[in-house]
C-alpha cells in the first residue's frame, strides 16, 4: 500500500470508505482504491481515523484486529493524517445549521472539514458523504 508520494505531490486524505478498502486486501474495492490513490502519501481525514479504528476492531473474526494492531496499521499506512484544530471545530459547529448539515452527515462534515482546513484533497467512495463534502467546498477525489 502506498504511503509516500513523489515529493512534489501534496498528501491525499482519505475517508473511512477508502481507508477500509485500502487496508483490507480482500475488500471488493481494494484494487480500485489502490489504483486511485497511486503513490501519493496518505492520511486519514479527522474523524475518519476514529471511524476506521472502530470498523477494523469490530470486524467479524477472523478478520477482526486488536486495538494495538489497528493503531500500528493506521499510523504506518496513513502517516499524513490531519485533524481539526479547536478553532476549526468551533467554526464547523457554528456553521452546521447554515449549511443544512444534520444527523449522520455531521460525522461526514467532521471528515470533510479536516481536509478543507488543511487544503488537501479528500478521496472517497461514499456517495452519500459527497453531498456534505461538496457543501463544505472540499476538493473530492471520487474513487468509485
Describe the structure.
With 144 residues, this protein is an alpha/beta fold. The protein has a single domain, classed as 5'-nuclease (Rossmann fold, 3-Layer(aba) Sandwich), CATH 3.40.50. Helices cover 50% and strands 8% of the residues. It has a four-stranded parallel sheet with strand order 2-1-3-4. Strand 3, helix 7 (127-135) and strand 4 (140-142) form a beta-alpha-beta unit. Helix 1 packs across helix 2, helix 1 (16-23) crosses helix 3 and helix 5 (86-99) crosses helix 6. The two termini are 18 Å apart.
SSE diagram, text form:
Layout: E1 12-14, H1 16-23, H2 30-37, E2 42-44, H3 48-56, H4 67-77, H5 86-99, H6 105-117, E3 122-124, H7 127-135, E4 140-142
Parallel strand pairs: 1-2, 1-3, 3-4
Helix pairs in contact: 1-2, 1-3, 3-4, 5-6, 6-7
Bin the strand percentage.
5-15%
CATH homologous superfamily, by name? 5'-nuclease
Q: Whole-number average pLDDT?
A: 93
Look up the CATH topology. Rossmann fold
CATH architecture: 3-Layer(aba) Sandwich
Measure the end-to-end span. 18 Å
Helix content: 40-55%
